[in-house]
Amino acid sequence: MADTNFDVIVVGGGPGGYVAAIRAAQLGLKAAVVEKEHLGGICLNWGCIPTKALLRSAEVFHNMQHAASFGLAAKDVTFDLQKIVERSRGVSKQLAGGVGHLLKKNKVAVFDGFGKLLGGGKLTVEAEGKKAADLQGKHIILATGARAKVFPNLQPDGKLIWTYKEALVPDVMPKSLLVIGSGAIGIEFASFFNTLGAEVTVVEVVNKIMPFEDDEISAFAQKSMEKQGMKFKLGAMVKELKKGKDTVTAVIEKDGKTEEITVDRVITAVGVTPNTENIGLDAAGVKLDDRGFIAIDDYCQTSAKGVYAIGDVAGAPCLAHKASHEGVICVEKIAGIKGVHGLDRSRIPACTYCNPQVASVGMTEKMAKEKGLDIKVGRFPFMGNGKAIALGEPEGLVKTIFDNKTGELLGAHMVGAEVTEMIQGFGIAKTLETTEEDLMHTIFPHPTLSEMMHESVLDAFGRAIHF
Asked: Active-site residues: which are they?
């Protein structure tokens, strides 16, 4: 019999779970992971990674279509949707195997099956309807993730009405597509299919796309996407989806009026629901918050002693890097590491990999004003940056928000090429609690896109050089 007693048992092998288990092993704790389906979780298998592979193919296709602007020639440029999907799935498969290798390398035991709390540090694992193991853990971390939210009147069928899973492995290239929801998932798929030639319409219930982003950045992104042919219906709601033989008619309501749009396919991207069912929360005494996510403190402790929760199941923002960071915080607190900092949500960066990319960290301008703060706002356009012009990417904006009294960086927001790679610079700045003076005195290399970060800081205080 395999050993069934552990210091730490992690339920779920996604980006929060496997990171927590590896960190526990590094700290000398005996660790195990229980995973019912795929190591790497939704992010690696059906989310972050495969979508980026699809979007990369779309980006290359877009560049090939505009080869002439770079002095190059590429005639009769086409794409093979099946091969694009195969590449995406291959990337995920490669990385999933890597997770398994990392767990084995760190001597983390892996149990295949569905984990359920029994209380008192006990956990049972079921596989294919049969008991696979009974485990005992001093500490149990729930990292069960979330799934696509489904509304009764917008029920996906896997054929005409897709969730992100079907959108990742499309069997056809739709000529027309309706995307419900303009968060990161919805906008990324809208961008992918639009680039490949689909006529895309996005419906969003609030009056802006990417609702959690800064208003100015959101408006900039929308205008750029509209130039690419995308259509948006904001402040609108899809009331009904009527399926035909190979089309779907959406009934859309706005300002009390309704209209109908018929499209080849629909993608629903209206949020996520935490995976809390049938995992024994009641038996263990684990409470949920008002939104149905597991309630935790700053160190991921639930209402039940010895039980913790990290990642999507513990609430927004539902981001892989937030889950991984929570996993580390949680395990280091368990191990008694001194100086462990609780999660500061204001320092969690957000990235959307559409065209143009959007990235942010910290407060939006609206949030800062609502708090009554005296702020300084700096902006710098891509058009003023030499590297952006050389890349053929002149559309974009970097925006920074500072506390005028203390010089604290309150927030940073970007739209444009490669901003998802640049936002970490402002993330580091917030972690180090740098002021505008620190950032002004930092030397940024030339020519780079990152110079715009410097110029935006300078602009906030009336010192921009190149604009």
From this structure: 446
Q: Quick one: pLDDT band at residue 7, thresholds 50, 70, 90?
A: very high
Tokens coding 119: 């209380």
Q: Which two tokens stand for residue 69?
A: 């602007």
Map tokens 């694992």 to a residue: 125
Q: pLDDT > 90: what percent of the chain?
A: 95
Phi, psi for 453 (deg, rounded to 5): -65, -45
CATH 3.40.50.620 at 5-148+273-345, yes or no: no
Residue 181 burial class via C-beta count within 10 angstroms: exposed 0-12, middle 13-18, buried 19 and up: buried
Kindly report whether the peptide bond that precedes residue 317 is cis, defined as omega within 30 degrees of 0: yes
The yes or no reply on domain 152-270 and CATH 3.40.50.10860 is no
CB 196 within 8 A of CB 61: yes
Backbone angles phi, psi at 247, to 5 degrees: -140, 170
In the chain, residues under CATH classification 3.30.390.30 are 356-460
Q: Which residue in 320, 271, 309 sits closest to 287, CA to CA? A: 309
d(CA 297, CA 68) in angstroms, rounded, equals 55
Task: Kindly list the distances between the CA atom of residue 28 and the CA atoms of 24, 307, 337, in Å, as whole numbers in the listed order.
Answer: 7, 19, 12
Note the pLDDT of residue 44. 87
Q: What is the pLDDT of residues 309-368, one digit of tens each?
A: 999 999 999 999 999 999 999 999 999 999 999 999 999 999 999 999 999 999 999 999
The verdict on domain 356-460 having CATH code 3.30.390.30 is: yes
Q: Please report the sign of the dihedral spanned by the C-alpha atoms of residue 41, residue 44, residue 48, residue 51.
A: negative
